[in-house]
C-alpha cells in the first residue's frame, strides 16, 4: 500500500459534453497493488493507513498516464524527415526504413528505442502500428512485456503497391497473424490488432482475411489508416471501384466496430462519419503528422457532431515525436487556424484527448484514463526543473486551467520525472 500525495489534474467527466477539468491542489491517492483504493485528503489517508509508505509528489503535477492511439514502431528512426506529402514520404523515408526490420537484431534495437520513446514521453497505453515482419512483432511484444506498457499491436499486412520486401500473401498473413494472436493476445497487458497498412496497399481478399481473423478471435483489435491525403484517397477509389468510399473498403471486409481505430480521417464524407459513429470505430487524430505531411486540417467539429469518438495519436515517424503534450498543443493550433472552422480547445479538452478519450478508444476506460477510485494507477509526474520557463509559469499561473495550458504549451519529456503503469514505476 502506497499513499501518493500530489496536485492532480484529470478529466473523469468529458469537457466536450459539459464536463470539466478536475483539479485538486493537494490530494492523497491510496494505491493498493496497483489499484486506486481511495482518493481523499492526506490526513484522512494517513490516519487510515498509518504504516503505508508516503510518496510526496506535491512539487509539480500528477496526471493520468498518456494514451497514444496511433504510433509506428518501425519508424522511430524516421522521425523528422520534412518536406514531402504522404505517398512520397512513404517511398523515400518510411518504407526503406521499415524494410530493414526483416533483420531480427535490427528489429530488437528498434523495439528498445521505440519503447524508450514511449515511456520517456509518459505514454502508458498505446495502439502501436506494427511491422510487416512477424519476427519483428515478436521482438516488440517480448520487450513490451518486459517494460510493462499496455500495448495493442499487430502484424502489418499489404499485398500490393509497396516494395517487394514488405508484401505478403493472404495465406501467409493469416498464418503469421494467427500464430502471433495465439502467443501474445491477452498476455499481461498485451493485445493483438489486425493491421492492414491501408487499403491503398491491400487487395479486397487481404482485407477480408483480416475480417475473418476478427470473427475467429473475438476480442482482438483492428487498426489502419483512413482518408489522410487526397492522392491516397483517389488511389483507393481507383483500386476499389465497387466501394462506396474509403471507409467502405474496411466495412465490406468486416473490419469496423468498437475495437477499431482508424488514423487521420482528415478528409471524410458525411456518410463515412455517420457510418463510423454507427459502428463505433474511433478516429486517431494526429496533428503534428497532419502538419508535417501537409495532409490538411482534421475536421474535429464534424467528428464530434456525428458522434465519432476521437483521441490523440503521435503518428511517429510522420509525427515529430512521442510527446502527446506536443500533439495536444498542435491540435489547438490547427483547430484555431482551420479556415473551415475548428473547435476552440481548452487545456481540459487537450488533457481529455490525451488520456480519457484514448483509454475509451482502446476499451481501457474501465481501468485507466483518469485517477478515480477503482482505476489502476497509470500516472505521469510532471516536475519541471526549478527556474525553467514551465516551472516559473506554473508557479505564476492564474488558474488550474492556465497551469495545464502551460504544461501543454511548454512541456517536454524532459519535464516528466516519473511514470507508473498499474502502480509499477517505468520511468524515474
Ligand atoms: N498510410 C500508410 N502508411 C502510413 C504511414 O506509415 N504513416 C502515415 N502517416 N500514413 C500512412
Ligand atoms: Zn500512421
Task: Characterise the protein shown here.
By secondary structure, this protein is of the alpha/beta class. It has 2 domains: 2-65 and 370-427, Roll (Urease, subunit C, domain 1), CATH 2.30.40; 66-322, TIM Barrel, CATH 3.20.20. Helix content is 39%, strand content 23%. It is built from 16 helices and 16 strands. The protein has helices spanning 42-48, 86-99, 104-120, 134-147, 170-184, 204-216, 230-239, 246-251, 270-279, 287-292, 300-306, 324-337, 347-354, 356-361, 389-395, 400-410; strands at 2-10, 22-32, 35-40, 53-64, 66-72, 123-129, 150-154, 156-157, 190-196, 221-226, 260-264, 282-285, 310-312, 379-382, 416-421, 424-427. The strands form 2 sheets. Strands 5, 6, 7, 8, 9, 10, 11, 12 and 13 form a 9-stranded parallel β-sheet that branches. Strands 3-2-1-4-14-15-16 form a 7-stranded mixed β-sheet. A hairpin with a 2-residue loop joins strand 15 and strand 16. It binds guanine and zinc ion. Residues 70, 72, 129, 225, 263, 315 line the site of zinc ion.
